Structure formats: C-alpha cells, structure tokens
Amino acid sequence: MIQQESLEFLKDLVNNNNREWFLVNKERYDKARENIIDFTGQLLKTMHKVDPGIDEALDPKKCVMRIYRDVRFRKDKTPYKNNFGISLPTQGLRLGGAEYYLQIQPDGNSFIAGGYWMPEAAHLKAIRQEIDYNAHDLRKIIDDKEFIKLFGDFKQQEQLKTVPREYGADNENIDLLKLKSFIAWHKIADKDIVKSNATENIADICRHIYPLNVFLRNALA
To answer: Which end of the chain has the lower number of beta carbons within 10 A, N or C?
Structure first.
C-alpha cells in the first residue's frame, strides 16, 4: 500500500522545489520511491487480471516515471515533478498505444486514466477509421451509465476546431471523429490512495476502461 509518508514527501516538495532541499531530503525521496515501486509491483499483478495485455512480470521500477523534470524548453524551471507517475503499458515497455496511467499526487490530485493520449498521425488516422466503421461499438462503451458516472462525458475532450479532411461535417459520428485524444480518467482522493485495498479499487475502475482500450487496440491491429 502507499504510505502516508510518501504523500507527505510530495506535499513538502511542492513548497521546496529546489535542488538544495531535495538533496537534504534525498533519503525521504528514496524511501517514498521504493514504496511506489512496491505498490506498482502489486498493481501490475492485480491489473493483469483485468487486462491480460499487462505483463505482471514487468519490472515495476521501469513503470515508475522519473521525478526529474526536463526544463530545457519550459518556462517553469522547477527541477522536480510534484507527483509519482506510473505507466501500465499493454505492449511490454513499448510506447504508443492504449494503456493505463496512475498519477499519485496529494491534495486530491491523484487519478487513474486509460486510453490513448494524443496519438501520432498514423495511429490517429487508424482510430478515426475504426470509429467511422464501428462507432456503435465505441458509443456502447462510452454511453454506459457506469462509464459516464466514473469518467464523465467522453466527448468533452479536446477536439479539432475544424473537420478532419477525410470526413464530412455531416458525418453522424463527427463528434467522435474530431477528438484529439481518447482518454478516460477518474480522480482518487488522498484517503483512498493510501487504503490497503487501493490496488483492487483501481483495478475495479479500470475494468470500465478495458473495453475502450480493446477498441483502440483493434483499431491499431
């Protein structure tokens, strides 16, 4: 389980996001990171039961993202992220596809997400083609009452301002075809992320994301 101390470290980091403080508190960071790695190992095993595409034997260290920020092209020069990110890929460690992502961030900012964020051009074209052919299958997933309860209106993600050139404005599925990303996400309260059954609760949420990921994978097959 995620320890409260791991959240406390992140809270303190928000107010002291500099290298001097981080070096003094490196031992706290190492302890928090090990806690997140252990949790990720448990989560991989639990999530494999939901989505067999997740390899439960993956090294959890490789799933936990770096806390160090790349500030080369950013106005915000703070050197550290204020969260722990966990990638749960469904193609080994290869990137570029439908997967799951857990962000652990205190003060009510933790969330679990799944789907495909900002697909590359070729993948986006393939997903739109799948929507054009089989929109009914996608709508059945995203219009499910439990899906809406957990993730809100799937169509309210960032969309193109214009119509994709391969499709007409009168296409009955233009609301889906204009989407730039295909993501479902759900916030997790601090009190829930530190519960002993957090992995099971996260997996239960992801059961409702799994059909979306299957749809997206089929589009890219």
So the answer is: C
